[in-house]
Amino acid sequence: MPDTTPTWLLVVASLVKSAILIVILLTIFAYMTWIERRVVARIQGRLGPNRAGPFGALQPLADAIKMAFKEQIIPAQAYKAIYLIAPVISVVVALSAFAVVPIGNSWTPGHPSVWDPWVGDINVGLLWILSISSLAVYGIVLGGWSSGNRYSLLGSLRSAAQMISYETSLGLALSGTLMWAGTLSMVSIVRQQTLQGQGIWFIVAQPLGFLIYIIAAVAEVNRAPFDLPEAEQELTAGYLTEYSGLRWSLYQMAEYINMITVSSVATTLFFGGWSFFGLERIPGLSIVIFAVKVAFFLFLFIWLRATLPRIRYDRLMRLGWQFLLPLAVLNAVVTAACVALGLPWWVNGLIGLAIIVAVLAITWQRSRQTRFAISKTGAELLPPSVRLVKSIEPELGLVNGGEAAVAGVERQQALLQDGRVQV
Amino acid sequence: MTTIPVSWYLIVSALLFTIGTIGVLVRRNPLIIFMSIELMLNAVNLAFVTLSSYLDSADGQVFVFIVLTVAAAEVVVGLAIIVSIFRTRRNIDVDEMNLLRG
Amino acid sequence: MSGPALIISFFVLAVASVASALGVILFRNAVYSALSLILTLLFLAMFYLQLGAMFIAIVQILIYAGAIMVLFLFVVTMLAADPRDPDLQDRLPWQRGVAAVLGLVLVGALSYLLLSGTPLNEAARAHGSEALSQVVAQQGNIQAFGQALFHGFSFAFEVTSLVIVVAILGALVLGRKA
Amino acid sequence: MASLLLWVLIPPLLGFIILGLLGRTLPRSAILTVAWGTVALSFLFALSAFLSLLGVHPDSQRVSDVSVYTWAIAGDLQVHFGLLLDPLSATMLLVITGVGLLIHIYSAGYMADDPGFWRFFSYMNFFIFAMTLLVSADNLLFLLVGWGLVGLASFLLIGFWYQRPAATAAARKALVINVIGDFGLMLAIFLLFKHLNTVDYGYGGPNCIPGTSGYGVLTAASCQQLGSLVSLAIPLLLFVACAAKSAQLPLYMWLPDAMEGPTPVSALIHAATMVTAGVYLVARTHVLFTLSPYALPIVGAIGGLTALFAATIALTQLDIKRVLAYSTISQLGYMFMGESAGSYSAGIFHLTTHAYFKALLFLGAGAVIHALGGEQDMREMGGLRYRMRITFWTFLIAVLAISGIPPFAGFWSKDDILGALLTQATSVGGAARYLYYGLWGLGVLTAGLTALYMFRLFYGIFMGSYRGAGPLKHGHAGSEEEEEEEALTTVGRRRRGESALYEIYEVPAVMTVPLIILAILSTIGGLVGSFALFDYSRWQPLNAFLAPVLGSAPEGNLPLLWLSTGASLIFALLGLLIAWRRYGQGFVYKESRNPFYRLAYNKYYVDEIGIALLINPLLWLGRQASALLEGGLLDGGSRLVGRAFSLVSAGGRRLQTGYVRNYALAILIGVVLIILYYVVRG
Fold first, then answer.
1. Quick check: D642 pLDDT over 80?
2. Is residue C166 within 8 angstroms of chain A, CB to CB?
3. Would you list the domain boundaries of chain C?
4. Where are the transmembrane segments (chain A) (predicted)?
5. What domain count does chain D have?
6. Per-residue model confidence (pLDDT) at position D477
7. What is the complex's ipTM, to 2 decimals?
8. Average pLDDT, chain A
9. D601, D622, D649 — which closes off a domain?
10. Which of A113, A201, C143, D401 could in theory staple to D357 by disulfide, Cβ–Cβ 3.0 to 4.6 A?
């Protein structure tokens, strides 16, 4: 924006744009809940909410009214102030992160104005999103802690550990794109991907980075299959256990807004944001393009939730530290090399694809080895990675399936018969 | 752009630093002592950034960056130590850790 | 931002940051202390913004508030799950008084030094193309920072990365089940 | 050429390192490959260095001094690790590596059953390295390094069977006495540096005048500036070192005891090479010895006395290795006598031939000992000529050689020395004349004694009938108790008489081949000497070769030479005759009541006198000092210090409350004080 813009105008414009953005986000949140229930129901062969209004479209409104009038419980052992504030923190943080996301092209390309469709275009935009979303964990940790409930506390601790673990991979995955873009400003990143810029969406240069980002993002927003903090079966509802009514829905709101944010970031960094082969020059259309792309990712989130079972907690951690982080480092190194050597984008893309293929092949190979072992009688045995008795773990041949597993199971039975091992 | 004297920022920095120092001296929970140390580091960081801005040189900011990183490393190790102490002693009062008494 | 707005914001931030810093050492509950510290850090980040160090401000939030303090909170909530334990007898009750007096002396002396015309106010500024403001004006904040970091302090940078690796290994070793 | 010298040095060092580090794990074949290979390489390089030297004309240019590495520069003192190749060092290197190689080969057989096989060869390689370093160093400081290292190698090898108390005691004794000599050498070096500002021999230095007798800094010209006292002190201090290393009176006591080491060690270190280092040093620094009129006569007197003294002891000894040890001492005295007559090349010549035949004698004795399973007493031998033919013949050659019977090597070199002595006696004036006449007489007498005791030994071992009880069955490294146990059984076995002789076998080829080679060398080795005796003085290749370094020996006239040769030959034959008369039918041991015999048999009670006069008083002094100084002064002082510290710390430890916060408070106090200082200073 031109330097001549008076400060008051800047402030006013920002306030107005923020207000509009918040309204939009809240609306999307409300309808996301409805869409999610419909989509999941469809996937599961059910109907979902379809009574209130056409296709049940007024369902979010009904829910909101219900939530607003629901009694709010404050546990006796809670730390009251923090208990009350925690959900608010979550929402505020979620909303603030969105401030630098450009949801459309400038109204008059080439002539920046204060009314362009983003709240602020700061030159550390992406860092802003990362740093603000790293604060999101506070809402959860504080909520869980202040509830004065072990389940809540455990849920919040899980959440903290999970978010810290995946934030590193997330940031590193994005760094590849940043190297191609050469800027941290969200608007500039999008411009780099338009025909006026480098003319490619960075997904083609960064397939590996994108994959890591998506996995890490799902974990970062605590969505299935990484929704450990609120795992009903394990922790009743994690940090949400003691919350009800509006405060509960504030947490939901934060979660959905975060989803929108990470989808927007994915769109912006990997799919060209509001650009679509020149069409974005029609100002209104650029916002639609952006919305469609984000919607695709949101749908992806719902789809994942409906499809994948929840992952075990230790595997979640292992996935984050031993799989995603090394891959992200590898991606960053490869990308840095490509950028530094001035190689064209498709080299980087091909290397990324090759790594993906290699990783998939290895994983597939391993899973085949460990999936099932066939005994001599032809019956399927449990894979060796399933440990029945903890104390004989080291004696089980955990190497390759097949005979090792057979031997292990036989040894296990022998031990059980001896009475040396108690199940 | 600045109309605020540099010493004002530095006095804020000194205040924060002293508060951190006192925290180290009077608190017995090692976690809070640790936080007080972080406070002291941050007070110094404030001084660095202030001087960087006033001297118009990026060096101070680089120092802050490095302090930040080292602080992260320090916290990681320190918290790991505290957790392992807690694991063995079920108690993290620093006054209980006085095996070095003469 | 300039003139009275700047001064007002400075004082608001100063009071807020000092107050929240006092909170760190005054709260009995470690979680509240941690929250106070987070607040202090955020206020400091705003100070940095005020001083034109945008990158440092953001990194302050990202690393300190977003990572370090989360770790703190993690440990605090884990270890001090029930902070209402009866507090043990303070074995050094006299130290509070001494510390307070010494703290006052320290602040007083420092303030006196800072206000009584130390050479700081007349310190020479960097000039020419190396000057921070010039680089920022030409290339932007991050670029200026990056140049300083990787040109003048690349060795320190590398050493820091080594420190981090060592710290990670140390934490791993310490965190292993004995 | 000097680079060749470096390659002479490096292989044994490498061998030492490899064997020392990995030897335990290596198979025998690999150990032998390394040990033999390195010494063989060393020998080949020494040989090529020697040949390359021969190819240089004129003779005076036959020198190469290359500084490999500058070790230290301190003010005027510049110490280079320089390698010097000249006729003297080339000769020495050939002898060391050549004889060393033969003895390495021999050792493979001799040490075959020893558990310390790898250790032995590692030490031997180390010795070769140290000795080559000693002779190829181009300055006294690195000579001292080699000097000390050969002492170390000698110590290690004497004490090789460290399970035996006698061996370790002998090793200790050798080390202590050698260190006395090292002190002498060090003091001499200090004096030289103080007065001449150098420790180099001086090749290539500013004063270097090739072609003159003794070149470099240690030229007669540059040494003239030394005062008369210093010019006597330096050679005498050097000679202290020589006497210790070469076992001259009164520092000879360690050498007979050193026979506790394995026999190949005795052959290599305590006969052929290391003990001749003193002879080498005198030759190398001969310029210094000529500065004072008293230096050389003293050297000669000590050498002559030692020669006779040791020969008389050798006459009475029963342990065959001890006989040889005393013979070595006696022969070393001979070499010093020759050098004292100004004929340094005669000394070096005798050194060379002595290396051949004395190594041969030791190896032959070793073969006998090996065949007898460790028996060293002459009374338990006899008649071995039937069972050990090769050893017998080679030993005979060596005995003839050492006895000075023509045409064997010893005759030529011994004759050279005696001739030089007589020539010197006739050419100098004053009291020295009588000294040299006396020395010549001693030499001739000793020649006779040498023939006597050598043939006594020879007859004792090989002639007559077998008196022993067959080979002992234990290994070399048996403990004391085992030996006693074994002795008991031998009594029983002795009754079986002659048949035991058939249990004795000639040693394997790996041991006899070196014997044969050394026998050949002992036979023809003397032919490089002077033919002046036959009035054909143009043939003296060794003298001529060494002349650029050592100067040419004074030429004697023919009648004198004839007289000298005739006398020594007659005495030698006389000794031979007496030996034949007494021991020709086999050695018979009789307790003799003759006081002189008892005196010699008990080695003149030198050890006992030493213990009574030196060691006991020293021990007494030490005990008194320990009680007085250590108990009262040092301990008391340290106790006082300790008490002071504990008092201080008792106060100080109150500060160590163990409360971390206390410590932090202390830091803060410090910080506040520093800040306040700035406030006050303004």
1. yes
2. no
3. 1-82, 130-178
4. 6-32, 81-104, 124-145, 166-187, 199-219, 256-276, 282-304, 316-337, 343-364
5. 2
6. 46
7. 0.74
8. 80
9. D601
10. D401
| Residues of C whose CB is below 8 A from A134 | 61-62, 65-67, 70
> Tell me, what's the pLDDT at A57?
82
**How confident is the model over A106-155, as pLDDT tens digits?**
777 667 777 777 777 777 888 888 888 888 888 888 888 888 878 888 88
**Residue A378: predicted pLDDT:** 62
Q: Which fold has domain C1-82?
A: Four Helix Bundle (Hemerythrin (Met), subunit A) (1.20.120)
Nearest to A237 by CA among A136, A146, A151, A149: A151
Number of Cβ within 10 Å of residue A280's Cβ equals 25
| Residue numbers of the domain that contains D653 | 607-681
Residue in A closest to C139 by C-alpha:
A123
Say yes or no for a CB contact (<8 Å) between D662 and C106: no
Q: Do chains D and A touch (3 or more CB pairs under 8 A)?
A: no
Structure-token match 């009541």, residue found = D593
Residue count of chain B, please give it.
Answer: 102
Same domain, D65 and D40: yes
| Integer Cα distance of C168 and C161 in angstroms | 11
Chain A neighbors of C58, CB-CB under 8 A:
124, 127-128, 131
> How many angstroms separate the CA atoms of A66 and A62, rounded?
6
- Residue D653: closest CA among chain B residues belongs to which residue? B102
Touching, D vs C (3+ Cβ pairs under 8 A): yes
- What's the rounded mean pLDDT across residues D197-210? 54
Exposure pattern of C147-174 as b/e (b: 16+ CB <10 Å)? bbbeeebeeebeebeebeeebeebbeeb
Tokens of A18: 């923020």
Q: Which residue among D601, D631, D654 closes a domain?
A: D601
Kindly report, residue by residue over C47-59, the tens digit of the pLDDT.
Answer: 998 888 888 888 8
- Please give the full DSSP string across C25-68, using - where no structure is assigned: HH-SSHHHHHHHHHHHHHHHHHHHHHTT-HHHHHHIIIIIIIII
Note if the bond before B30 is cis, omega within 30 degrees: no
**Residue C172 near residue B82 (C-beta atoms within 8 A):** no
D478, part of any domain: no
Q: Helix, strand or coil for residue D498? A: helix
* CB atoms closer than 10 angstroms to residue D676: 14
**Alpha-helical segments (H) within chain C:** 3-26, 30-50, 54-59, 69-79, 93-115, 132-139, 141-147, 154-175
Reported as a single tens digit per residue, the pLDDT across A364-391 is 887 766 555 566 666 666 655 555 544 4
- How confident is the model at residue C20, as a pLDDT? 92
Whether residue D166 is predicted with pLDDT greater than 60 in this model: the reply is: yes
Chains that touch D (3 or more CB pairs under 8 A): B, C
The topology under which CATH files domain B29-93 is Helix Hairpins (1.10.287)
Look at residue D213 and give its three-state secondary structure. coil
Residue C105 to chain D, least CA–CA distance (Å): 7
Q: Is C81 on the interface with B (CB under 8 A)?
A: no
Query: Which of B55, B13, B49, D675 is closest to C112 using CA atoms?
Result: D675
What residues of D are in contact with residue B102 (Cβ under 8 Å)?
649, 652-658
Q: Give yes or no for residue A423 having a pLDDT over 50.
A: no
For residue A159, which residues of chain C lie inside 8 Å, CB to CB?
Answer: none
Q: Measured between alpha carbons, how far is A66 from A245 in angstroms, rounded to an integer?
A: 8
Please report whether residue D473 resides in a domain: no
Instruction: Write out pLDDT tens, residues D87-144.
Output: 888 889 999 999 999 999 998 888 888 888 888 999 999 999 999 999 988 888 889 9
Helix (H, G, I), strand (E, B) or coil at A15: helix
Most C CBs within 10 A among B26, B28, B40, B51, hence the mutation to make, goes to: B26
Collect contacts of D384-387 with beta carbons under 8 A, ≥24 apart.
Answer: D384/D461, D384/D462, D384/D466, D384/D501, D384/D504, D385/D462, D385/D463, D386/D501, D387/D501, D387/D502, D387/D504, D387/D505, D387/D506
